[in-house]
Amino acid sequence: MKIFLVVFAVLFLISTPGWAVLGEYENSVPSDQQRMHAQLRQVAGQGYTVSQLRSTNGQEVREYVSPAGLVFGVAWQGPTMPDLRQLLGSYFPQLQQAAQSPRRRRGGPLVVKNKDFILVSGGHMRSFHGFAYVPSLLPANVPAEVVK
Amino acid sequence: MKLPDAWQTKLALCSLLSTVLLGLAGCGGSSSSSTPTTPTTPVNNTQAIEVNLGPANNYPNGVFTNVTVCVPGTSTCQTIPNVLVDSGSEGLRLLSSEVTLSLPAITDNSSNALQECTGFADGSYVWGPVVSADIKLAGETASSVPVQLIDSLDPTTYAVPQACTSGGGSDENTVEALGANGILGVGVFQQDCGNDCTSASSSPLPWYYLCPNGVCSAATVPLQYQLQNPVWMFPQDNNGVLISLPSISADGAVSASGSLIFGIGTQSDNALGNAQIYTTDSSGNFHSIYNNVDYSNSFIDSGSNGIFFLDSATLGIPDCTNNPGWYCPSSTQSYTVTNKGLNGTSNPVTFNIANADALFAGNNGLNAAFNNLGGDSGTSPSTDYVDYGVPFFFGRNVFIGIENEPAPNNAAVGPYWAY
Question: For residue B361, what is the enclosing H or E element?
Fold first, then answer.
């Protein structure tokens, strides 16, 4: 059993080179850390934990994880936009659809309020920040506002 | 990949292009001494700006101006109209489709041309090479300034790196998509990226790129080869900018004419007067306090076409049905927010938010300038900023103090805002 688990973990590390991904089980924080050349800090919240990755080039990503290990929210800040394709995983197409629809709103923040996917991306050059979460994946008694 | 000492504007290429393609002899003097001088006769420091719908007729509250670019050190120049004036970014970016000049590339010493991916908060981006140009605005000239040419080819010369598209938005490489012929970034910083892109101690940010053998990888770039806010490179009137737009009707206006004035307290037309200075943090943000909540990443952005503030649930007003992302209160609402600089200056500011569906439909849809257009900035209470876009500018003098540059009487050092 022990051997099986180790093999399992190694496979995960090999197959998930990116961030922990929204809506999936957290299994790649160590490789995120390596990829970002980041310092990792894990903080316990009430009914969830936050893995905070901070790289030396100023990028910061926070991953909000349920007691079962599910990533229910992500947040970011830094001088550039983060890699949202990796961070959002299967939710990225919802961002693309919202971001690429023609609109009169220009040059400001992007707010996506879909049925089960919320995203806010704001700021300006050198100061980008935002968050995304999946309402149906929020752990019991954890309000959406913790993701920020 | 880091090549701190190897960067050069490719003057050899410049000579060649000038001689062969333009029939001119060489590129002329390339010295760009930045020694401050006080001219005996003040230069014209006032550039006309206009708020209208822009060249693609799709940018409400767009602030536009003309920008003249020249082959460095020559009188071979071109004036590009309809360039967006953006206080939320730094540097000049022009659609390559609108530029007929041959501007010299900035390369490393292996002749790899520097490329840039510029990402915006709404997920959109622009991609293309960095070239060198003299920039002329009013009577001011910034010499040999790194400028981004937004690659408007399809496909682009170098494929857009995957990391550049990871914001989820569109490649704004056409007039239609960008809503402008280019962007003139005159924000509070000297360079667009700054020290975060020079560091050799970490992996380079996905911002500047080199593409040896056609494969693009992120690269660190010394400050002087990054895009520059042209204002701080002027020989005079270089400590900041004043954006002045007139008061307009609450119903909106077809257009509004104003001024982009260079320098703060350097001439008779750019004194601070009654304006208060609000210094920002190192990211260009200040505090906005509303209902006892401190929104600590607030900023002023002439590239944002509305005031983006909280959300409909918090404010108790509905979002629009015809124009998603905008507020549609049944009657115009007035809000008072207290802005606080890092220097402690703290004062209330009041703005209105009207029904955007009605505003856009008014005057047969011809209006372009609105002082009461608002939309959401997030989902409360998680949002942490107010984005004061173009409506904030009408009827105000808004000063942009550039980093490291002193305010009049040394009252502050940039970065700061004053109004």
Answer: helix B356-361
